[in-house]
C-alpha cells in the first residue's frame, strides 16, 4: 500500500497481511530501532532500574565473564543462566526499551521481536505446527506485553515456548501492572508464572520500579480540540504529509472488520491520526480492539488529534474496574502521550 499525501480515511483501508509479511514485521517498532543498553537512562531514585539493566546485559551476553580461579583457588561456579527473563513492572519504566536492547545487543543469528498479539496472530495465520517449525532453532524470541487475559492464547504461547526452549531458544518477555496498585509488581509476576506454570522455572523475574516517563511532566489528560482547532491541525499535517480524518464511531466499527494483526498495515504511511467526535465506550470488545489499535499507533510514534471526549476518558469506570484494567490503563497513558506529541 503506497503512502498518500494529504487527507485519507482509515475506514477506506482494507489491509491484507501474509504470513511471510507478519514474520518480517517481527522486529522492534520504529521508536526502539536505536534502543540499546547504553541509551537506557536508569532513574537513580529507583535502584531496581540499574540492577535490571545490569542483569539483562549479562543475559544478552554483554557482561563480564565469571572470574577464574587462581593457582590455589577454585573458580567460583556460577549457576546456569535460565533461558528466559520476565521484566515485571508498571507503565513507562523502560521495559520495552530494555527488551529491544536485548534484541539488538544479543549476538544471535535468528531473533524475533513482537507483541504477544503478533505471535498469537501468526499462529492463527500459519497454524500451530507451522509456527513451531518456523521458530524452531531461533536464538531469541522477545515477547512484549505478554497477555494473560485469554486462557486459550496463553496456553498456545506456553506450548510454543515449551517446544522451542528444548531446542535452545532463549526468551525475554514483558507485561504491565497498573500504577499505584496494591501489591503492584509482585502480583503481576505471580500471575505470569502461574499461567505459564509449565515454563515457570525457565524464567527469571526481574523487577523494575519507577514512575511512568510519559506522565512525569504532564497533567495526565489527553488533549481534546475544538472543531476549528482540529480542522486546522489536520490541514497543517496534511500539508506536510499524510493525515487521517475519521469519525470515532466509524473507525471503531471498521476495527471490528480488520484483524488486530493488520492494524499496523492500517496506519502504514500515516503521519497524523485524526478522530472526530470521540465518545465513551459502551462495548468492551470494541474498547479492547481500540486498545490494540492504539498500541500500534503508539509504537509507530504517530501523533493523534481529536475532538469530543478526552481520549483518556473513553473507558468507563466499570471497564476500568474489571479484568482488563491493565490494558486500559496502558492505553490511557499512551493516548495522553500521543495527543501531546
Automatic annotation (TrEMBL):
GO terms for molecular function: ATP binding; ATP hydrolysis activity. PANTHER family: AFG1-LIKE ATPASE, ATPASE N2B. InterPro entries: ATPase_AFG1-like (IPR005654), P-loop_NTPase (IPR027417). One of its GO terms (cellular component) is cytoplasm. This is Cell division protein ZapE. It comes from Microbacterium aurantiacum. Keywords: ATP-binding, Cell cycle, Cell division, Nucleotide-binding. One of its GO terms (biological process) is cell division. It comes from the Bacteria.
